[in-house]
Write a structure and sequence with these properties.
304 residues; alpha+beta; four-stranded mixed sheet; 8 helices; elongated
Length: 304
């Protein structure tokens, strides 16, 4: 059995835990203020934005915990370490987003059937608070968002929070000066539908990783054809390709050789396979089982 791990050409940047903590505290302040303000003013849009902010508090908190866990070394009973912590967090957060969105749609329909007057001044001031706090959080995380997928996710959540607060502000102004109270329900539905859109996409992607599905950017047959181009190789079978986390893609396969080659020759071929898999497909872990004249299934995909 041959195993190779292709090292990344650059190290993963350190996540600024301090900036994450500041963002968490700011979002807690926004959430509590919006919940109190929404109950006092009667604004459902403000309450929906508060729930959205609360989900982001949890997301930021989990990002921080995952960052701490990711620094722990692997052990004999945790051979992969905690590399899946962020994926599990994404799955839980996305499922929660969809549940919250369904509750918001139910409340919006009830409010539409029984409209209520809303204290628009409070809505305006609290939306301004949300814009300011989320804007500062976006500024804090922007530096690491371009080079770290976990931080980019948190950054995008906060950026959309700021945009949602802008929408609530516009709704508050329309209610104050034009008494257009139905806009509060419309904004609630818009936020809920957006949460479903974001939540479903995240749920689908995290489920694919947890279920060990082949990444959608990789075609197994092309992998097989690439490996079979190497002359001493007769057949490629028992192929498994999965994503461990956002940074690591693994390939496991059995390879039949036409000749009973030496181990040193296999090492050279393994090095060639590893280089091609990494540069052509982004696969950075290659685990190959060499075979010669072995009687087993030669199908590309074999259900064990």
């Amino acid at each position: 059995m041959g195993h190779k791990h292709h090292s990344h050409s650059h190290s993963r940047p350190d996540v600024k835990g301090r900036n994450l903590i500041i963002s968490i505290l700011l979002n807690v302040l926004i959430t509590v203020s919006q919940i109190i303000g929404g109950l006092i003013s009667g604004s459902l849009a403000l309450l929906s934005d508060a729930l959205h902010n609360f989900s982001d508090v949890m997301s930021l908190l989990i990002s921080y915990i995952a960052n701490v866990l990711s620094k722990k070394e692997a052990s004999t009973n945790k051979t992969f370490g905690y590399k899946r912590a962020e994926i599990i967090a994404a799955f839980v957060n996305s499922a929660t987003l969809i549940v919250v969105a369904i509750i918001l749609i139910k409340e919006a329909v009830e409010r539409f059937l029984n409209p209520q007057e809303i204290e628009s001044d409070l809505v305006i001031w609290l939306s301004l608070l949300g814009i300011a706090a989320n804007g500062f959080s976006v500024f804090l995380l922007k530096g690491t968002a371009s080079s770290n997928m976990n931080m980019k996710s948190a950054y995008l959540h906060l950026l959309t929070d700021m945009m949602a607060s802008i929408a609530v502000l516009i709704g508050g102004l329309l209610m104050k000066f034009y008494q257009v109270y139905w806009v509060d329900t419309a904004l609630t539905l818009a936020i809920a539908l957006y949460l479903i859109y974001m939540g479903y996409d995240l749920l689908k992607n995290s489920t694919r990783v947890l279920m060990l599905f082949t990444p959608h950017t990789i075609q197994v047959q092309k992998i097989v054809e690439t490996i079979k181009r190497i002359k001493p190789i007769r057949n490629v079978h028992h192929v498994h390709i999965w994503q461990l986390n956002e940074d690591e893609v693994h390939l496991e396969a059995h390879i039949d050789f036409k000749e009973d080659i030496k181990l040193s020759e296999f090492d050279i071929i393994l090095e060639q396979i590893e280089e091609e898999m990494y540069h052509e497909y982004g696969i950075n872990h290659v685990n190959i089982q060499p075979e010669f004249g072995k009687c087993d299934s030669k199908n590309v995909i074999v259900q064990d």
